[in-house]
Amino acid sequence: MRIAVINATGNRDAPEYVKALTGGMESMGHRVDIIDACAGDGRGLPGYEYIAAAVEGSFFGGKIPAALGVLLAGAGSLTGKKSAAFVRENGPFTAKALARVMAVMEKEGMCVNWSDRIRNSAHAENLGKMIGN
Predict the structure, then answer these.
(1) 2-129 CATH pick, 3.10.20.70, 3.40.50.720, 3.90.199.10, 3.40.50.360
(2) Residue 10, class by beta-carbon neighbours within 10 Å (0-12 exposed, 13-18 middle, 19+ buried)?
(3) Where are the alpha helices (DSSP H) in the chain?
(4) I need a labelling partner for 19 at 20 to 30 A (CA). Which of 86, 111, 116, 130 fits?
(5) What Å distances lie between residue 100 and 26, 65, 69, 93, 130, CA to CA?
(6) Is residue 7 a contact partner of residue 87, using CB atoms and an 8 Å limit?
(7) Which H or E run includes 41?
(8) CA distances in angstroms from 47 to 4, 33, 41, 43, listed in the order given
(9) How far apart are CA 88 and CA 94, in angstroms?
(10) Cα dihedral: 132, 39, 93, 110 (round 10)
(11) What's the DSSP call for residue 47?
């Protein structure tokens, strides 16, 4: 399966847990591309079979980077696209950040069929191995 992992962490270089998430997906035979939400162009997203968003929420308030919504809004038609939402667990508002990520994705018509909090890189790799099962 061809998968796009949107790095919406605010870092140009994907953090270790995003790399571990993609590594888990690749170990299961998927073709995976990491797209930086801040610098990426979302026009290619409709060509992927599955889209996963990896987000770094704020410690207080569960805010997420606005770049994710901008990228998805500029992508064209994502209606019905299967997707997953992942947020790195980093404080008391992680669940709120995860709900916001799912809302942004569903606003564009995406079908979020899986969401989870990422505890560490090993956990991220295991989550990546479960994509497509």
Answers:
(1) 3.40.50.360
(2) middle
(3) 16-27, 67-73, 94-107, 121-129
(4) 111
(5) 27, 10, 10, 11, 23
(6) no
(7) none
(8) 9, 12, 13, 9
(9) 7
(10) -40
(11) G
DSSP string, 8-32: ESS-SSPPHHHHHHHHHHHHTT-EE
Q: What is the pLDDT of residues 7-30, one digit of tens each?
A: 998 777 889 999 999 999 999 999
Question: Which residue do the tokens 């038609």 mark?
Answer: 77
Q: Fill in the amino acid letter for 63.
A: K
Structure tokens at 89: 């667990």
For the question of whether the overall pTM of this predicted structure is more than 0.70, the answer is: yes
Answer yes or no: is pLDDT of 41 > 90: no
